[in-house]
């Protein structure tokens, strides 16, 4: 999830304040979920982040959420299988 004073919240608020109209949210460390690449964990994070970004002015339905793994590079440069 996202912590109350964490970077996710700070960066989303900064982006909105600076006039960024569209977001893409990379949900990182999906290789570390149990089980790895857990769809339920991805959806849980998506729901939590959507709730927050809606409060600051974004439309969550227009935001792309992408499961990624920075460690393995999954979904970072090209779609993973």
TrEMBL record:
<protein>
    <submittedName>
        <fullName>Elongation factor 1-alpha</fullName>
    </submittedName>
</protein>
<dbReference type="GO" id="GO:0003924">
    <property type="term" value="F:GTPase activity"/>
</dbReference>
<dbReference type="Pfam" id="PF00009">
    <property type="entry name" value="GTP_EFTU"/>
</dbReference>
<dbReference type="InterPro" id="IPR000795">
    <property type="entry name" value="T_Tr_GTP-bd_dom"/>
</dbReference>
<dbReference type="InterPro" id="IPR027417">
    <property type="entry name" value="P-loop_NTPase"/>
</dbReference>
<dbReference type="InterPro" id="IPR050100">
    <property type="entry name" value="TRAFAC_GTPase_members"/>
</dbReference>
<keyword id="KW-0547">Nucleotide-binding</keyword>
<dbReference type="GO" id="GO:0003746">
    <property type="term" value="F:translation elongation factor activity"/>
</dbReference>
<dbReference type="GO" id="GO:0005525">
    <property type="term" value="F:GTP binding"/>
</dbReference>
<keyword id="KW-0597">Phosphoprotein</keyword>
<keyword id="KW-0251">Elongation factor</keyword>
<keyword id="KW-0648">Protein biosynthesis</keyword>
<keyword id="KW-0342">GTP-binding</keyword>
<feature type="domain" description="Tr-type G">
    <location>
        <begin position="5"/>
        <end position="76"/>
    </location>
</feature>
């Amino acid at each position: 999830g996202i912590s109350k004073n964490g970077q996710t919240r700070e960066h989303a608020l900064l982006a909105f304040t600076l006039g960024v109209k569209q977001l893409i949210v990379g949900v990182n460390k999906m290789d570390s979920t149990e089980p790895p690449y857990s769809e339920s964990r991805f959806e849980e994070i998506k729901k939590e982040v959507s709730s927050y970004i809606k409060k600051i002015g974004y439309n969550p339905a227009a935001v792309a959420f992408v499961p990624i793994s920075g460690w393995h590079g999954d979904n970072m440069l090209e779609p993973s299988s």
